[in-house]
Each structure stands twice: as C-alpha cells, then as structure tokens.
Design goal:
Layout (H helix, E strand, L loop, with lengths): L18 E4 L5 H12 L3 E6 L6 H7 L3 E5 L5 H14 L5 E4 L14 H29 L3 E6 L12 H21 L4 E8 L8 H5 L1 H8 L13 H8 L10 E4 L9
Parallel strand pairs: 1-2, 1-4, 2-3, 4-5, 5-6, 6-7
Helix pairs in contact: 1-8, 3-4, 4-5
Family: Belongs to the short-chain dehydrogenases/reductases (SDR) family.
Keywords: Oxidoreductase
Pfam family, one: adh_short_C2
Length: about 260
Amino acid sequence: MADSGAGSPFAAFSLAGRVALVTGASGVLGRHFARVLHGAGACVAMGARKPAALRGLAEELGEGARAVALDVTEDASIADALAVTERAFGPVDILVNNAGIATTRPFLDHTAEDWDQVMAVDLRGAFAVGQAVAKRMVAAGKGGSIVNIASILAERVIPGVAGYSAAKAALVHLTRQMAVELARHRIRVNALAPGYIATEINRDFFASEAGQAMVKRIPQRRLGSVDDLTGPLLLLASEAGAHMTGSVVTIDGGHSVNAL
C-alpha cells in the first residue's frame, strides 16, 4: 500500500494496537494468518498443541509474536492460553478460529471415532475458543472480531470427508448464531470459506491426473494460494469490515458456483 496514514482509505485495515490469537497456527494457513495479522500491526499469539513447532516463526516475526500451547479440545488449555496471551499482550481483540482436522474415508467406513475427533476440533473447538474469547471481549467492553475458518465444503461436498463437511457446515451456522447474539457487544463474527489452496500437503495430488481434473472444474482454472486469503482476512479482522457480521466470504476461484 502506497499510503497508510491516518487520512488514507487504507488506514481502516491497520491492526496497530490490536491483539490477535490464531488457533491451529502450526499449519500452513495458520502460519500465513499469523504473518498477515502481525504485518498489519497486531501482536499475535500463535496457538498450537506443540508450540515448539512455531519457535522459528515467532523468531522470524520478532517483537509482538509469541507461540502458546493450545489444545482447542481442552477447556483448561484454552483458559491457560488466553491467560498467557493477556499477560504478554493484553486482552484479545481478534480471534482467528483456524484449528481443524479431517479424516479421509468413505462414508460407509467412517467410524464413530473419526466423527468424534473431527467434531471435537473443527466444531466444538471453535465453539469453545470462540465463547471463551467472546466472554473476555464482553468484559473488556471494547468489542472485537472473530473469524471462523470454514470451507466451501460447508456448501458442497466431495466423497470421503463426511465429518469434515458436516463440521464446516455447522461452523457456518454457528458463525451466524454468534454474530446475532454478540452484535450488541460490538463483537463481529464472520467466516472465511476457502476453496482448494495449494500447499506442500496436497501438491502431489493436484499434480496427478485426478487432481488436474479437479482444477479444470474451477472456473479460474487454478488453485488458490495462501496470498489469496490475505485481503479477505484483513477485511474481516479490521475496521475496514466494521459493518460486516454474520458474513461468509468465499475464496475459491468460482468453484462453489460452478454447476460442473
């Protein structure tokens, strides 16, 4: 941005003086979200079950970045992570509910354990962290922004991920419920719904014949990149999106509106 001064239209995107918590920060998306928020001026707590995996990123970002131990399936861990964050930076203004897992297995082979594990992280975890942070936001009286990371699979499905698709669909509806109930406290709750994002995890699949066929069904004829999520995240996290709550922002190159 050429001009980010107080009189600039871009000033609303600044996160200077804000405190953010990113869950699932050791993953590809989580690391990117942490970099974006920190780059926009926020102090960032990066939560992961194994915070040692984030030591390098914390050193890279420097002042205003900290890795914290956080297991979103454990209420005590959530409380401890928030306490550590508050001692380091102050109350959380921005939450990115990014922690998530998926089990890939045909529906007929999907086990109850598979289902419970995915729901515990992707849905209950988002609920538990969101509620804990929202309570602190209400107590602080300054409002805030919660961004839940959903997926286009909340609206459309592919074989083999029954639990994940169901959890993300529920998360979208939870986002709307939270938005309605928390608006009077000046807490905005929105969701990002990424399509297929290129990472080192899926690179081999998308290089295969089946993967290339899937890419051809995306109207833009390409996978997304983590950089495609930067603008939407900043919009929802900052005052630039001050009148947005209960929204689901889809970033998928037109995939979800394609009938093919």
